[in-house]
Amino acid sequence: MASPAAALCLGKLGDNLSLSARYSVAGEDQEESSAVQRAQAREQTRQRLLEAALAILESGGEAALTTTAITRRAGISQSGFYNYFADMEDMLCHLIEDVERQRRSAAASARRAARPAGVNDAMRESFRETVTATAAHPNLFRLLLRSRLDPASRVGAEARRQLATTHANFMRALAQGPVPVATEQDRRQASLIADGLIAARDAMLIGHLDGRYPDVEEILDALMLFVLGVPSAARRHRPALVSGRADA
Fold first, then answer.
1. Is residue 28 scored above 50 in pLDDT?
2. Cα–chain-centroid distance for residue 200?
């Protein structure tokens, strides 16, 4: 049996260990909280740089994009730019990715909200978000179109990656609607239709930015004619087309 003095010492030791453990947990929590705050602050600074770059691109064009102009507008040191992006091309890739992700998210939300009214209304509202987003950032849209044809740059690779994502989304939408995708031939035809819809959409968006097609509702009407008419025509003429290939 421990003496009273030994028991007292053991009790104090237990209290000290318990207190030490509490301090250790509190320290870990504080360190984790600080890490989260640092990550949040870093992301906020990154977003400020991207927002500054987008504003400069839209107001002054691509030629106005410099690290000096971007960091001055974002309120950080010029050298700080390279804590977030490897170079200007890397920054443009991140800008394209962020803006396109936001556009797709907005289009998806609009599509979900309109779905109770029907698939066609959902598709129309999705197109509306795309037209609205493009009109808000015309220089970025033109940069995207031009960069798709650049085989060497990272911006060109990112633009083509975004195009591939858009194509895949169109394919999914067509598969949920009137276009069959059961066979390889079906999927190839759906891919052709998706490419045609993207080309039509982009041409109409350029016309909207240039002022030739100022009425958004007219653009949406035309896009829906493509969405509904092309698959329907493909179904009507498919037997004749298949027969024609066999006869040839």
1. yes
2. 21
> Which pLDDT does position 12 carry in this prediction?
62
Q: Two tokens at 174?
A: 């067509």
Indicate the CATH number for domain 13-85: 1.10.10.60
Q: pTM for the complete prediction?
A: 0.79
Q: Let me know: does 48 contact 76? Beta carbons within 8 Å.
A: yes
Contact, 174 vs 231, CB < 8 A? Answer: yes
Fold of 86-248: Tetracycline Repressor; domain 2 (1.10.357)
Is the backbone of residue 85 left (phi > 0), alpha (psi -120 to 50) or beta? beta
Work out the pLDDT band at 30, boundaries 50, 70, 90.
confident
- Domain residue limits, the chain: 13-85, 86-248
Secondary structure of the chain as H, E, C letters: CCCHHHHHHHHHHHHHHHHHHHHHHHHHHHHHHHHHHHHHHHHHHHHHHHHHHHHHHHHHCHHHCCHHHHHHHHCCCHHHHHHCCCCHHHHHHHHHHHHHHHHHHHHHHHHHHHHHHCHHHHHHHHHHHHHHHHHHCHHHHHHHHHHCCCCCCHHHHHHHHHHHHHHHHHHHHHHHCCCCCCCHHHHHHHHHHHHHHHHHHHHHHHHHHHCCCCCHHHHHHHHHHHHHHHHHHHHHHHHHHHHHHHHC
